[in-house]
């Protein structure tokens, strides 16, 4: 059973960088052929795929967020990390990490088989 758990700050100030970590158990983030993803849901809105890091280490980002998003991993700890720079109040959302069993060329068509529980992040002064 694959489990994912998000961790990081619940409150971030505007213009700062949000850093969230996803800890994975029950499966290796380097095993073929999964994509380890970050998704968020602002209040009252739908899910938004942000990006993913593949089993190979390759990264993929939503075009709308690529300029300020970075995903990395620590394979020795079986964790992967999201960095979102220059946050604004519009970045306030519940942030999820999840596993995708396949790649998608369409940001709105990523699908997931395992999810973390999500973590609330509020951007405010």
**Given the C-alpha coordinates, what overall shape results?**
globular
Estimate what percentage of residues fall within beta strands.
over 45%
Order of helices and strands: EEEEEEEEEEE
pLDDT below 50 for ≥5 consecutive residues: which ranges?
none
Instruction: Report the count of strand segments.
Output: 11
Largest sheet report: 7 strands, mixed
**Termini distance?**
39 Å
Judged by helices, strands and strand pairing, the structural class is mainly beta
- Give the oligomeric state of the chains in this entry, treating copies of one chain as homo and distinct chains as hetero: single chain
| Total helical elements | 0
Residues in helices, as a percent range: under 10%
> What does the average pLDDT come to?
97
What Rg do the Cα atoms give? 13 Å
Question: Can you put this structure into words, describing what you see?
Answer:
The structure is a single chain. This protein is 0% helix and 47% strand. The chain starts with a strand and ends with a strand. A hairpin with a 6-residue loop joins strand 4 and strand 5. The chain is globular, with a radius of gyration of 13 Å. The protein is built from no helices and eleven strands. The chain is mostly beta strands and 125 residues long. Strands 2, 4, 5, 6, 9, 10 and 11 form a seven-stranded mixed beta sheet that branches.
């Amino acid at each position: 059973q694959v489990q994912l758990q998000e961790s990081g700050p619940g409150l971030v100030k505007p213009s700062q960088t949000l850093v969230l970590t996803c800890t994975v158990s029950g499966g290796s983030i380097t095993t073929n052929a999964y994509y380890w993803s970050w998704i968020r849901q602002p209040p009252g809105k739908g899910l938004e795929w942000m990006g993913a890091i593949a089993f190979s280490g390759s990264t993929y980002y939503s075009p709308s967020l690529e300029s300020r998003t970075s995903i990395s991993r620590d394979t020795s700890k079986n964790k992967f990390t999201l960095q979102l720079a220059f946050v604004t109040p519009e970045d306030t959302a519940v942030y999820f990490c999840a596993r995708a069993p396949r790649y998608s060329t369409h940001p709105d068509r990523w699908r997931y088989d395992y999810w973390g529980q999500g973590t609330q992040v509020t951007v405010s002064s």
